[in-house]
Amino acid sequence: MGIYVHIPFCEKKCYYCDFHSVVVGDLTHFAKVTDDYLISVRKEALYYKKQWGNKSLSTLFIGGGTPTSLPPQKLASLIRFILHEFPFAENPEVTIEANPHTIHLNDAKILASAGVNRVSIGAQSFQNNLLQSMGRLHRSDQIEKSVLRFKEAGIDNVNLDLMFGLPEQTINDWKDTLMSALSLKPTHLSCYGLILEPGTPFAIWEAKGILRFPTDDDQAEMFEIAREVLVKSGYEHYEISNFCKPRFEARHNLLYWMNMPFIGLGSGATGYLNRRRYTNIAKISEYIKGWMNDCPIYERESLISEKQEMDETMMVGMRLLQGVSEIDFMERYGMSFFEVYPLEIEGLLNKGLVELVNGKLRVTKQGLYLENMVSGAFLP
Amino acid sequence: MTQKNIRNFCIIAHIDHGKSTLADRILEYTGTLTQREMADQVLDSMDLEKERGITIKLQAVRLTYEAHNGEKYTLNLIDTPGHVDFSYEVSRSLAACEGALLVIDASQGIEAQTLANLYLALDHDLEIIPVINKIDLPNADPERVKYELEDSIGIPAEEAVLVSARTGEGIGEMLEAIVNRIPAPKGDSQAPTRAMIFDSHYDQYRGAVAYARVIDGNIKVGDMIKMMSTGRTFEVNELGVFRPALVAVNNLGPGDVGCVMASMKDVRDTRVGDTITNASRPTTEALEGYRPAKPMVYCGLYPVINEDYVALRDALDKLQLNDAALTYEAESSAALGFGYRCGFLGLLHLEIIQERLEREFDLDIITTAPSVVYQVVLTDEEVIEIDNPSDLPAVTNIEHIKEPYVHATIMVPDEFVGAVMDVCQDRRGVFSNMEYITPERAKIDYEMPLAEILMDFFDRLKSRTKGYASLDYELIGYRESKVVKLDILLNGNPVDALSCIVHQDKALSRGRSLAEKLKEVIPRQQFEVPIQAAIGNKIIARETVRALRKDVLAKCYGGDISRKRKLLEKQKEGKKRMKSLGNVEVPQEAFMAILEVE
């Protein structure tokens, strides 16, 4: 089980991003707002602590936004607070997201001393022209520097986020990015195909014909290249968009893909507790206002029935290349997924989208590329 | 009111030439409605269709007019439908009249449809009063219209009445002309009853309502009446006339126009053109001109969702209560499952029904390619009629096939004559005649296959003539024709619902464009989907829907689970609206494609 903390601040909004975040420079009293925000997160943490009880926790993930847009001391103090208040098991995975240009060696050391032992760096691309066109603030040489600083500070479990399907991106650009990333010897790589989210500058520019994006077929090709290159270099492809050196899976993210409960803290954060899924109000001032009165304000909230949870367990579980274990499913729900989804699974098997290997139902290669068809089959 | 003071008339006009406004003005002028009540065009208004809990179709309005000679007259204004699909109904309405107002727009001149209805009116020996309308408009040219009248129809120019339905100018003169020029109805009140049904309507409380014109004898409340075409008898519960509200009367005599209510189950009991007689003292001779409503076009209607099959039948049942021309019978398609083969008067009629099924009954419908009725002469000389490509016998058993032809009359300004001929030629038209009605306006006659007219011919005609062309057509019989069955194969399997019968000269281009269109509308799927057009075993066109390579979300973390679920559920919803043919998911639009391609 784990905790996610959302830090909704950024120095600049990237052109593809539809996450809720505010640009630091737009805030008049930045220090006041961030302090109030961090106080609210602490209050929220204590609120869920009561509900949580003394079940053991194993991961903490600080995401955003850009967590490192806050002063490192403040982040460190929040991390210490959470690790102290909740019953964490030994050697928890503590991850923080960082952007290459925001990291100094001293910052990395402060975070490490607070318990951070894994970092996820938003590298995205090693082509400066592409970085610029997506609205990123860093240049490619800063990626290497930031990796080295984290390693020097003792955080050598490093993930790099990479993106393909960028405007004007060529196959060779993508290969170059992969090779550059490999040269930094990260333990983990996330390779995301760009999604044009409605309302983002990218989506608007695409609609107006200002930018040209690779087609879905081009994206499929880039994805295929990533698989070949990374697997050849000793990485395991363990989730649709994720690759790791053996035993370096993102433990926190595995919780999501196994559909386990987790606590979400911060504006816009989602949590899943006692078959209740909540998403906090996204607007920062509203979020703070709520906790000033010691109560959560939700953007939405829903109760998940057992059947719905089964559906979702299959829906997210099939993203893992190892698949969903029949025994695990049975232990959790008292019946096999073959009993719950007989026709659905038969259909998927017939279409060659899934296969049953060693008691696990998993996607085939084609099912991997058409995962929506697989997931969709488990929904009513 | 004595018979000699009755005048029955209708208004013949092209769409937009001001029929409704003119009718309103007549109602207002005769005091049938005050100006305050004239909120909108009465004859077209749906709001007034509710009276004493029943719905009424304002088909015939009774007006009282005091003429300049001091006598009171009863004027019955009978409405006529205005589309080529309904030409038989038009002819029955005309048969209920002694005269007609021929309304012509002072700036537009005579149009083909007007002319076609005028000829129909002349066939019925109606007294024609030409009315040149919209004379108040700045571009009005009544002199040119008078010239057209005299030159093309042979109506003396001085007979025309100039009016403006908008301002009311000339309406008085027009009413005097109606009284003075249209003859009183003939008919013998002592003779056995004969009344002609010129329209009918289904009302949920009273059953079918017949709109009839009494020729001889009388109809009284309590009478047993008999329908000559079916021999069925009914007791009259109510008689009425519209002023424009329904007013009950006890008797309808010779020359009268009104509605007859006799607990009739549906409009099949009140067939347009049929003769009503008295059951105890019946006439021996029915009135001439009865023709059972005969569908010209057939297509399959299928529910998108199979479970809606019963709902579709119930809906067709209800529509049929009020539509004697609509026919349907159950059929099944390998591709679409269970549905109904439906017959229509024409494409407009088909579209109306389809729209009503979707709007009023909330059904999602797939329509298969409309087909005319072909006569297939078999090698053993037997002749069968087919309206469904699937029913076409094996080629080896066919001696030849005949298809229905129409005589089409098109009127256009002379600059578009070339364009019209192009379009007609392209549609296998055979030129028969052309004459100039005025130096600027031509009337072109073609003989054409009905099937060609059905495929967006009029739209094509209008677009090639900047909207100036008008069209009218009538069936002239069957002719031998080299038609073939064009099949569409998806993933190697023929899809019966996409088959159509086409002329062999057009099969290749039709097959190609159909395959191209299907490629556009069929979404990419897990496997490559070949689309083939074939005649018999011969493939004449091929397209391929490439396999879908990637359908996956890049990210799915804690906050994305609900989102992913919603997205997938939406995808699934879309899929439910598709028909699964073998392995291929085919959207509703694919079946529409066949209507859209050239």
Task: Characterize the structure shown.
The complex is a heterodimer of chains A (380) and B (598). Chain A has 16 helices and 17 strands. Chain A has 380 residues and is an alpha/beta fold. The longest helix of chain A is centred in the first third of the chain and has 23 residues, at 30-52. By secondary structure, chain B is α+β, with helices and mostly antiparallel strands. In chain B, α8 (417-426) runs antiparallel to α10 and α11 packs antiparallel against α13. Residues 38-56 of chain B have low confidence and may be disordered. Chain B has an 8-stranded antiparallel sheet with strand order 13-12-18-9-10-17-14-15. Chain B has a 6-stranded mixed sheet with strand order 4-5-1-6-7-8, sandwiched between helices. In chain B, 25% of the residues lie in helices and 35% in strands. Classes of the chains: A alpha/beta (380), B alpha+beta (598). Chains A and B meet through α8, α9, β12, α11 and α15 of A and α12 of B.
